[in-house]
Amino acid sequence: MTDREMLLRKLSSAQFALWELHLYLNTHPDDSEALRMHEQYESKCAGLRREYEGTYGPLSPMTGEGALWLQPPWPWDVTEDDG
Amino acid sequence: MWQYEKKLQYPVKIKRPNPKLAQIIISQYGGPDGELGASLRYLSQRFSMPYPELKGLLTDIGTEELGHLEMIGAIVYQLTRNLTPEQIKTGGFDAYFVDHTTGVYPASAAGVPFTAAYVQSKGDCITDLHEDLAAEQKARTTYDNILRFVDDPDVADPIKFLREREIVHYQRFGEGLRLATDRLDSKNFYAFNPSFDKKK
Asked: What would the DSSP string read from start to end of B51-85?
């Protein structure tokens, strides 16, 4: 696994945990433990996202434009560096 | 509105092409219990959902299904990369290939094009939530059936992830149904339609 893939997986795992908590909070909006964990993962995701985008380019059109946004890999690509 | 994120919800990285498998897995792209139907179902039903928790649930699960549609598209795309005419023929992919080459098209494993007849939006939250619970189980069964044909761990891994999401969504919809019935007439849940009638 490349460094890029490794970091992307770290970010995706944290985002997944955040999303799971978010879905759960739809039906348990007053669960303070879940709200606390959500806050934790929110800051973890923000940090990992900054780290990833700083090195490998934007994940959203809001965080990078033009050639930076268009540069590969796209999510469905199997890139050279990934094997 | 929506904003795109240039990544998959869960990684898809398939080294070996397998057109036969692509033809089966495409059912979760545009088949009767696939991700396209799932996202359209929830994102359409949410407009008539009466309670904030249900609006949130349908919006979020409908959105996640769009991410799953993208994962299935990536799986099909990667399974059909760099095919030779020989592989297309022996893999039984020729019937799909003649109409779509290796483009990703929403159809079932049997080649039936996607149709809105796969989804319902009934304007009654009890009815719609029951459809949603059933839809998650039908998708789970489809993933279980797909896994019977998969021996490549690169393919099984993301398919297992998607299968698990159906179970989590089923759980959340069950909680949504309970939250709805808690607000209805406990002697008769069907006394009025909370999506349409003024509350009695």
From this structure: SHHHHHHHHHHHHHHHHHHHHHHHHHHHHTTT--H
Q: For residue B88, what are its two tokens?
A: 């297309």
Q: What is the average per-residue pLDDT within B111-126? A: 98
Instruction: Return the residue of B nearest to A82 by Cα.
Output: B13
pLDDT tens sequence across B52-105: 999 999 999 999 999 999 999 999 999 999 999 999 999 999 999 999 999 999
Handedness of CA A49, A50, A53, A58 (dihedral sign): positive
Hey, which residues does B113 pair with through a beta bridge?
Answer: B107
- Kindly report the length of chain A: 83
Nearest-Cα distance to chain A for B177, in Å, is 10
Tell me how far apart the alpha carbons of residues A71 and B191 are, in angstroms, rounded to a whole number: 57
Domain boundaries, chain B: 19-182
Candidates A80, A73, A26; CA nearest to B175 is A26
Chain B residues with beta carbon closer than 8 angstroms to that of A9: 11
Give CA–CA dist B11/B158, Å, rounded: 7
Q: State the distance between the two ends of chain B, measured CA to CA, in whole angstroms.
A: 34
Backbone φ, ψ for residue B113 (5° rounding): -65, 155
Closest listed residue to residue B105, CA positions, set B47, B16, B36, B167: B36
- The CATH number given to B19-182 is 1.20.1260.10
Tokens 């434009």 correspond to: A65
∠A14-A76-B151 over CA atoms, to 5°? 85
How far apart are the CA of A44 and the nearest CA of chain B, in angstroms?
17
